[in-house]
Task: structure prediction
Amino acid sequence: MAEPAAAPVVALHGVRKAFETGTLALDGFDFALRASEFVSLLGPSGCGKSTALRILAGLSEPSGGTVTWRDPAARNGIGFVFQEPTLMPWATVFDNVFLPLKLAGESRAAVRDRVMQTLSRVGLSDFASAYPRELSGGMRMRVSIARALVTAPRILLMDEPFAALDEITRFKLNDDLVALWRELKMTVVFVTHSVFESVYLSNRIVVMTGRPGRVSSELLIDAPDRDARFRTSADYAGYCRVASEALAKAMQPRAGAAA
Amino acid sequence: MNERALRVLAPAGVLALSLLVWDLVVRINGIPPYILPGPGLVLSTLVSDWGILWSSLLATLETTVEGLALAVAGGVGLAILFNQSRLIEHSLYPYAVILQVTPVVAIAPLLLIYLPQQAAVLACAWIVAFFPVLANTTLGLNSVDHNLADLFRMYGASRWQVLWELKLPAAMPQMLAGIKIAGGLSLIGAVVAEIAAGSAGAGSGLAYRIAESGYRLNIPRMFAALLLLSLAGIAIFALLSVLTHLALRRWHESAVTRES
Result:
């Protein structure tokens, strides 16, 4: 499904990120993002996955190394989903999803249909006038995803978006996310510390070492369908075993700090 | 007895008991009204002197409301300036603190020398009331969710959009809490200045009536005026509480009643 031959949408070479506190989050991080792929960054907590994602989003500048975009304009077509829903509590679901368009100067009337369509994509048509506090955790995360999708981004960056949700809700959102990815033909970078989630969702898993983060290994997941049958298949179990082993190996030098 | 009835009946009982004791102490000891009037006399004075007390109350309330309005405008305005410019914040914040910690009683006589009386009274109300608005709004503006701020940055929000769409709504709960405190303080500032002005000459507010009645040993009228001042304070607090509730009821935890 991925096209390894095509030039990457964005390439990170030898990226290093040191924070003012002295923490070295990334060092010698190499990563190439290919069009239309679903790639997971898998690694232990604090391995710099989120930092890598923030650098891709332009929210953080690398301290060293290069970030090369094939088409610099593509940087404006990014949607970002945080670990927390990160909604404005004083605004309705509609207004939260409307926000990116509002900031771009669109009038509410002109984009009403677009916002409502996006809401229906994530199954929240009936909750447009609800406030975030009236919603469950899973529904808040759907609002957050709708907000990221409303600008029709070519690239969707997700930072452990489902980590705080219960398993049943997470499975449902995983399925919905795969369906959205297929339908909208986006490129997705998904940060997670869950082996199972990364295997279920991705074409490609990039396994990262503990801090400072760098790429330890890569794993291609070649499965056409992502559904309940895949989740219970021998293939899935096999991929999970390989990914778990890769993760264990990535964490070896700092085995004492594994948590 | 349910919770709601208890919340009304318990303080009402304390009030009734206090009034009874007060009345008995005055009657049994035969205390003359120019030393301590009984509650009945205070009430009847309130009625008989209503004309003069009412116009005094209006004068004090006018100062209080104007002081509060200026405090909100000045406090919120200054907080926004502080938030936009570190230079302005570092330059002015220490002086805002000095203005706040210097007792207004000590500043009032000076203001009365340099300003027309009404302006001086208003300035006193403003001085005591603006700081809680400034401090709370500043805190609110600085407490914005970092991820939300990042999101605004990602979507290329202007400085103005960040302020108007993100920072001000996020600061609303703290700002309103500051305004609620400022309402009571504005009344205190107005009263302090009126007392100070009272000894300096013509005044018309309730506090001036208290000072004037004191000189004339008209103690029942002092009590009646004091009662009105308390009621005015309570009314201001209640009004601002309702406003806060209306503004936050849809989204903020403080205004949401949980069903258990």
Summary: Strands of chain A lie at 10-18, 24-33, 38-42, 64-69, 78-81, 155-159, 187-192, 204-208, 215-220.
